[in-house]
Amino acid sequence: xxxxxxDLRGLNRLAIAAAATLLAGGCASSPPPATAPSxxxxxxxxxxxxxxxxxxxxxxxxxxDSGIRNAILAQHTLYPYHFVSGGDxxxxxxxxxxxxxxxxxxxxxxxLSIRQGDATDPVYNARxxxxxxxxxxxxxxxxxxxxxxxxxxxxxxxxxEVQFNIQNLRxxxxxxxxxxxxxxxxxxxxxxxxxxxxxx
Length: 200
Description:
Structural class: mainly alpha
């Protein structure tokens, strides 16, 4: 009987160890690596991320892509770096940005700025024709597109106006931050004497 109790204790320990091993391993889809990875492994490049990581990666990519798309639409501008150096054809970046703009222009039309930069007049004119042909090939009604050589974001402003607007935004942000941190702490706001847009 004593011998049987020892054998059962041994079996219990073995069963507990086996259960602990199974629980520790969980439902992993792949076994752990047999050897430690070398020092030159890129830890950000996982060839087989699990589903949670894949979802997170897709979410980050989606947010990033949405931000890039919104920036392209907001600036609606093709710069000289969007073209093959010295030529009229779009490079890969230019093709990507134009493809984003095409989705907008097919439905709504709008303004497209193609910046001349240092390009000669013949090269610039060839670039404009190239982009017009690309837009037409993608189904954009060119009568709804106004092509210009103007800065992105609309009308230009004098530097004094830009500085004034930036200072106003900073003052407003500082005021908002101080009021949200101090509640009704009785802080006073100081403003600059300038109230105009730098008119001279």
